[in-house]
Design goal:
There is one protein chain. The chain is mostly beta strands and 446 residues long. The longest helix is centred in the N-terminal third of the chain and has 6 residues.
Length: 446
């Protein structure tokens, strides 16, 4: 359960310097000065030690409670509170048929640039594994006629310049491009370490090598697929770009609730917010998560003698990740505020002041996004679905399985997170790419 943190000096806890920082065990010198970060005991050693939860890094955790609310469409919440795919799901096709699409990224923002590049990596405070991704390909396919994202069986099925590869590990094979960097990929995809454009699996659960298109960050606060980055702009909404570890930088998830630094991949917990969230060291604000829609950016702030760390802007009060159930609390200045990580209000906040309790809503948190960094695994960045004071902006939408052209009732039914007039579509405004049989018109595949 979330709890509101009430530092004694609330005024300094919100703006702009936040000395309330708890570092993890890897920062030994600082840890000695902050004993609360060092005196954490393990809750569990195995799943059986937990009550309807699973054991991860010595802590009992739950990813879900109600399947329909907490899991992706078609997934169910199992006895250990983890979302599991439907029977026969292979990472891309839920029922083994070629008529439906793989799970995962693939939306578009507003430019043709892709996300972060591929390659094995380490990460700050974590141990990174390598990646699989299917056989590597170079050069073009052909002389087939299939286009980008079309389901295929071999390179020869695809048009000239395209190859046939699984765009998720063990997923459905689709026609895609060869690449050396994500800038040459379709929006919503990244250049894998096998040198082809793959769906964005950043944030998918993993435990080691061969489970990710790029690399697996495995360690305290992280058991997820990640990607090489050069700055925060290469990473999904709510993710920052770590400091070099072994000469490589990778995306780290910061929109995570914490009470201690070792719960975070970046080994630092910002307890100066209304509800504390993970953070990481930085050298400039460009290392930190990048918001869309001209919202106030994150900063790289000095935390006393501990160094400089990413700090959230004043309109963000909590760390809830996109897709999590929205929650509300009473701010230090007695305002009813959302605890969603990007500060966007989905529904009108209930009256919770002057109480100290966290009140949950019924909608899911949403985040703004940019086509370069995208949204990560299970989400698509779709233009124009939200309107901010600065105008229409792209937001992250949870994705489903239905292909472009298949029937839908909501955006979340569709592989690319866009349902238009009862048919799944794709935001093609950034790259003009549509599957076979469709054309890009008005920024959508029609």
């Amino acid at each position: 359960m979330l709890s509101c943190d009430r530092p004694r000096n609330a005024s300094t806890a919100r703006y702009p310097f936040r000395p309330w920082l708890v570092l993890g065990l890897t920062a030994v010198a600082v840890c000695m000065a902050t004993p609360s970060a060092c005196a954490r005991s393990k809750d569990c050693e195995r799943n059986s030690d937990c009550d309807h939860a699973y054991c991860s890094d010595g802590e009992c955790k739950k990813d879900c409670v109600v399947s329909e609310i907490d899991c992706r469409p078609g997934f169910t919440c199992d006895d250990t509170a983890r979302c599991v795919p439907p029977p026969g799901w292979d990472g891309g096709v839920p029922d083994g048929s070629a008529g439906q699409a793989g799970k995962g990224g693939g939306g578009a923002g507003g430019t043709s640039s892709g996300g972060a590049g591929g390659g094995p990596a380490g990460s700050g405070g974590t141990t990174a594994g390598g990646a699989g991704g299917g056989p590597a390909g170079s050069g073009g396919g052909g002389p087939g006629t299939l286009k980008e994202f079309d389901v295929c069986g071999a390179d020869g099925d695809c048009s000239s310049g395209l190859i046939c590869r699984p765009m998720l590990i063990n997923g459905t094979q689709r026609c895609t491009r060869s690449c050396t960097s994500s800038s040459s990929c379709m929006t919503g995809t990244r250049c894998s370490n096998q040198n082809f454009c793959a769906f964005d699996d950043v944030g998918a659960m993993c435990t080691g090598k061969g489970q990710c298109n790029d690399t697996c960050a495995a360690g305290p606060g992280a058991n997820y697929c990640t990607a090489v980055c050069y700055n925060g702009g290469d990473c999904p909404a709510g993710w920052g770009c770590s400091q070099p570890m072994g000469g490589t930088r990778v995306c780290l998830k910061l929109d995570v609730y914490c009470t201690a630094g070792e719960q975070c991949a970046g080994q630092a917990c910002d307890t100066g917010m209304l509800v504390s969230g993970c953070t990481m060291q930085c050298t400039s604000a460009s290392d930190c998560p990048q918001r869309g829609g001209n919202l106030t950016p994150w900063a790289c702030s000095q935390y006393g003698s501990n160094g400089t760390f990413c700090s959230r802007p004043g309109d963000v009060f909590g760390p809830l990740y996109q897709g999590e159930t929205e929650a509300f609390a009473c701010s230090f200045d007695s305002q009813n505020v959302t605890l969603c990580g990007d500060g966007l209000v989905v529904t009108q906040p209930p009256s919770v002041c002057p109480g100290t309790d966290v009140v949950y809503g019924t909608a899911k948190c949403i985040s703004t996004c940019r086509s370069q960094g995208g949204c990560g695994y299970g989400f698509a960045c779709v233009n124009g679905l939200a309107t901010l004071p600065s105008g229409p902006t792209a937001i992250c939408v949870q994705t489903g399985f239905a292909e472009v052209g298949q029937t839908c009732s909501k955006n979340e039914n569709c592989l690319f997170g866009l349902c238009n007039s009862g048919k799944c579509s794709r935001d093609c405004s950034g790259d003009n790419v549509c599957p076979s049989g469709f054309q890009c018109s008005g920024g959508m595949c029609m």
